[in-house]
TrEMBL record:
Gene3D superfamilies per UniProt: 1.10.150.130, Integrase, DNA-binding domain, Intergrase catalytic core
The keyword Signal belongs to this UniProt entry's keyword annotation: no
Residues in Core-binding (CB) domain copies: 98-179
Keyword hit for Signal: no
Family, per entry: Belongs to the 'phage' integrase family.
Keyword line: DNA integration, DNA recombination, DNA-binding
Protein name: DUF4102 domain-containing protein
GO biological process per UniProt: DNA integration; DNA recombination
InterPro entries per the UniProt record, alphabetical: CB, DNA_brk_join_enz, Integrase-like_cat_sf, Integrase_catalytic, Integrase_DNA-bd_sf, Integrase_DNA_bind_dom, Integrase_recombinase_N, Phage_int_M
GO MF term (any one): DNA binding
Lineage: superkingdom: Bacteria
Segments forming domain Tyr recombinase: 202-387
Pfam family, one: Arm-DNA-bind_3
């Protein structure tokens, strides 16, 4: 006799062992102390086999009968239902491994050695917050250009145009990785060229007049904030590197004896290794700081945890506290300050300045110079620059 919904709901397990209740055509309800299980007995290639159809009440009687019918249809086509189910599970698992989310995290892990830890966190955050909620569960091979566009346009709508472009580029890198491992045919972001608004030209406010630099340097040397921030602020005009390169500096990159800071290419915008000759003033500041942070990884660790470097807003916050608004001076503005005064006031060689700014400089044959190009001359220039800043601050005879 076929089973009924009422019987399936009310039947209780026996005190010991298990009991089967037949529904017909090989399907039965297997009742144990642990629960109620749908099973289907059949023969395939002369062998008796059993397929699991689900667990009650998650799988109702009607649903179990539907699955039995599907299994009977497979048998009629010469297909083993158990094998088909296993293949289906494997295909589902494979599909889950081929989602944009899975590929993105795999790409992040594969390429993390190419990025500084802080950059890795930032890139992961961009994808996690802005892309994965919209594309994460989609098989990467099924994602269309418009799907990516709709995700990044949310950033554009918020006014974060530059971030929208960066996130689109990250998506492109994930797609190209998927192409390389055979899970996608092409990078669909190539079709989005021109689909986003152009990035507004960004001009970093900078003080470039020597008389104003006097006020800036005196304010910096009068700053009485946290020791890490104070040191970073004093070194900013001496190094004139990009703010991210400064705050992520590691002690293993700095040779105080040789007077050099060698920044690996993975941290640089142009991805080339870069050397910063250390003026005597910079060495003195670093030696003092080494007594406080030299036991750790970062020259400027976060005040919350030594596992991370200083916040990207620290130098800007210091400048604001000194009264220099963002329309007057920025952390990035130390580069423009050095570039302008070294060229127009101190009349240093432009190629040396460009080398020290880590801009692309090529020789007469069009080849990029290596990181040690003109290093002795750059070392002298950096010392003259530090001496000039000191002279401004202390009221010496300066141009």
């Amino acid at each position: 006799m076929a089973l009924t919904d009422t019987f399936v709901r009310q039947v209780k397990p026996i005190a010991s062992g298990t009991k089967k209740y037949q529904d017909g055509d090989g399907m039965y309800l297997l009742v144990k102390l642990a629960g109620k299980y749908w099973r289907y007995d059949y023969r395939f290639n002369g062998k008796r086999k059993t397929a699991a159809l689900g667990i009650y009440p998650e799988v109702s009687l009607a649903k179990a009968r539907q699955r039995r019918q599907e299994a009977r249809e497979l048998l009629a086509d010469g297909i083993d239902p158990s094998a088909a189910k296993r293949i289906g599970r494997e295909e589902k698992l494979l599909l889950e491994r081929q989602t944009f989310s899975a590929i993105a995290y795999e790409w992040l892990d594969k390429t993390k050695a190419q990025r500084a830890a802080t950059t890795q966190d930032k890139v992961t955050g961009w994808l996690t917050r802005n892309v994965l909620p919209h594309l994460g569960n989609m098989p990467i091979s099924e994602i269309k250009p418009r799907d990516v566009l709709l995700a990044v346009q949310r950033l554009e709508t918020r006014g974060a145009v530059e971030s929208a472009h960066r996130v689109k580029q990250l998506c492109g890198q994930v797609f190209r990785y998927a192409v390389a491992i055979g899970l996608a045919d092409r990078d669909v972001t190539a079709d989005l060229r021109g689909a986003l608004a152009a990035i507004p030209r960004q001009h970093y406010a900078a003080i470039t007049e020597p008389r104003e630099v006097i006020k800036l340097m005196r304010a910096i040397h009068g700053y009485a904030g946290h020791p890490y921030a104070t040191a970073a602020l004093k070194l900013s005009p001496l190094f004139f590197v990009r703010p991210g390169e400064l705050r992520s500096a590691e002690w293993c990159e700095i040779d105080l004896g040789a007077g050099e800071w060698r920044i690996p290419g993975v941290k640089m915008k142009m991805k080339n290794d870069h050397v910063v000759p250390l003026a005597s003033q910079a060495i003195a500041i670093l030696k003092s700081l080494h007594a406080m942070t030299g036991h750790g990884k970062y020259v400027f660790p976060s005040i919350r945890t030594e596992d991370r470097c200083m916040s990207e807003n620290t130098i800007s916050a210091c400048l604001r506290s000194l009264g220099f608004e963002k329309e007057v001076m920025t952390a990035h503005g130390f580069r423009a300050m050095a570039r302008t005064i070294l060229d127009e006031v101190l009349e240093e060689r432009v190629d040396l300045i460009e080398h020290q700014l880590a801009h692309a400089v090529k020789d007469v044959n069009g080849r990029a110079y290596n990181r040690t190009a003109h290093l002795p001359a750059r070392r002298l220039m950096m010392q003259r620059w530090a001496d000039y800043l000191d002279a401004l601050r202390t009221g010496g005879d300066v141009k």
